[in-house]
Design brief:
Elements lengths: L1 E7 L6 H9 L6 E8 L5 H6 L6 E6 L4 H11 L4 E4 L5 E2 L3 H7 L5 E11 L5 E5 L9 H7 L10 E3 L15 H10 L3 E13 L11 H13 L3 H9 L5 H18 L3 H11 L6 H14 L3 H9 L6 H13 L3 H14 L4 H14 L12
Parallel strand pairs: 1-2, 1-4, 2-3, 6-9
Antiparallel strand pairs: 4-8, 5-9, 6-7, 6-8
Helix pairs in contact: 8-9, 9-10, 9-11, 11-12, 12-13, 13-14, 13-15, 14-15
EC number: 2.4.-.-
Protein name: Glycosyltransferase
Enzyme class: transferase
Length: about 375
């Protein structure tokens, strides 16, 4: 059985269509757990008009989406679990297709999604992909949310002892990251989930400071030294591992425009500098953040022995000045030194796309 958890607050405009899109699935063995988070509009009255024994209804004081999802988790009975926003829609065969993706050690299956507006008009497309557990945290640092929670169907066992923390925004991000760092995923290349963007979305209207606080909260709840340790591999030298972890974190955040947060990681790295190689790596990463790419090339290029990390960031410096051939050389060298290092692999992808980007799927060119 599939458990569908729907937290809802003042959802009178869309909740009926949302619930019906789940009731009309080609898979009938489902339960819908609706948690009314203290709605003050006609949400409850609308839900009372939908009669189906598969619906379980709960009501709580307004505590936020995280608390509503946690309550839903306590009451679900399914072997598979998904969280569905109260204004989004699922295509009729969504669950049937997601279930086909479970095999071997797959912990969760997810899909692409079509973006729609208040009047069900398509306004965009969210294309996802599989990210290996070892690469999830790095992806979050450099890009952002790796998967949209609404598109995901989880095995029940991967959610044991998991809960949502009550952030003002982004409770889904931390929840997904914690699971994705431990469990393999499978991706369905189809828009099975219709995500509605409108003026009432909870992520709209938040300041830069609130977004920065959100990201810092996730980082603080993640052992980033442990997550980056396998990437860094400094032969058991804990301080050198921490130094590089702090600088990699700082550079990643700064490259996303979070300059203040990035520099804070640089500041915490200063006491960890013990020798000239540490100092040079610090200065090279600082030059990248400050967009002094020629200086970064000079500093990283001056290392007598270049490990996979130096090779990667030397490649990034060359890529930033559009020297594609030398960037390719250093990304390739990084992967020769450490074949499972995900960052230069993604940089090779970016390098290729900057020159020419070909999609296997070319349906749009029919029109």
């Amino acid at each position: 059985m599939i458990s569908v958890i729907i937290p809802v607050y003042n959802g009178e405009g869309f909740i009926k269509d949302t619930v019906n899109s789940i009731l009309n699935q080609t898979i009938e063995d489902i339960e819908i757990i609706i948690v009314n988070d203290g709605s003050t509009d006609a949400t409850e009255e609308i839900l009372q008009t939908i009669q189906d024994k598969r619906i379980k209804y709960f009501k709580q004081e307004n505590k936020g989406a995280a608390a509503a999802k946690n309550l839903g988790l306590k009451h679900c009975q399914g072997n598979f679990i998904t969280f569905h926003d109260s204004d989004d829609l699922s295509l009729p065969n969504r669950f049937e297709k997601l279930l086909e993706g479970f095999h071997g050690n797959i912990g969760f299956v997810h899909s692409d999604m079509l973006l729609i507006n208040e009047t069900n008009q398509p306004i965009g497309y969210w294309q996802s992909s599989n990210i290996q557990p070892d690469d999830v945290f790095s992806f979050f640092l450099n890009v952002g949310t790796p998967f949209n929670n609404g598109t995901i169907l989880y095995r029940r066992e991967v959610l044991e002892n998991q809960h949502f923390n009550p952030y003002k925004i982004g409770e889904d991000t931390e929840f997904v990251i914690k699971i994705a760092m431990k469990h393999a995923s499978y991706h369905i290349h189809a828009p099975l989930y219709l995500y509605r963007r409108h003026s009432g979305n909870s992520t709209k209207g938040f300041s830069y400071e609130q977004l920065a606080e959100h990201i810092k909260g996730i980082i603080q709840n993640t052992d980033y030294n442990e997550q980056l340790n396998d990437i860094i591999s400094v032969n058991g030298n804990k301080e050198k591992c921490q130094l590089k972890a702090h600088l990699i974190m700082g550079e990643a955040l700064a490259s996303r425009g979070m300059i203040q947060e990035g520099y804070k990681f640089f500041e915490t790295a200063i006491p960890l500098i013990k020798d000239q190689m540490d100092r040079d790596f610090f200065e090279g990463m600082k030059a990248l953040v400050e967009k002094r790419y020629e200086d970064a090339i000079r500093i990283f290029g001056g290392f007598q022995t270049k490990d996979h990390i130096i090779e990667n960031y030397l490649g990034e410096a060359f890529l930033s000045i559009k020297n594609f051939n030398k960037a390719y050389k250093h990304f390739f060298n990084a992967l020769i030194n450490k074949p499972n290092y995900g960052t230069p692999l993604q940089n090779l992808k970016a390098l290729g796309q900057l020159n020419s980007h070909h999609l296997v799927c070319q349906y749009k060119h029919k029109f």
